[in-house]
């Protein structure tokens, strides 16, 4: 009887290891899922872009990288292919850093060079108003080259549903970008895949 239990326990361990490796991959929330956020509009999802499982379409058919960042943004135009290939290969721990440089304009119309560093930091449990989630932690560091303008943006993505559940922005100087703000999920409504 003891040997039978050991074999069953061993089989369960193999199965659960396989499942956790499979669950480690990033994906879009299922169609009909949504996240209500503090002080920001709700994001409702239509599913993944057929061309990329890491680009999610929202209810307005706007594509969002990892279900959050607009793929119409300058960073994605400059480094989207790098981000997609690096993050698609993610295995559960820290990923390599993706470094992106691109040109833009400041609020006065002056030409600037932006630098962004992106990395998956690993997995972490995060507690928000909507509950407790086993999440993937992604960090973005944005800076304007030649200035002291820097902010970091950290996003937690629920592993079970693919839904972003928290964003924390740390501005490293007095100037703050009004469109990059911290928030947390107040409610997460998920739909099973294929429903």
From TrEMBL:
Keywords: Signal
Leader peptide range in chain numbering: 1-21
The protein, known as: Uncharacterized protein
Classification of source organism: Bacteria, Pseudomonadati, Pseudomonadota, Alphaproteobacteria, Acetobacterales
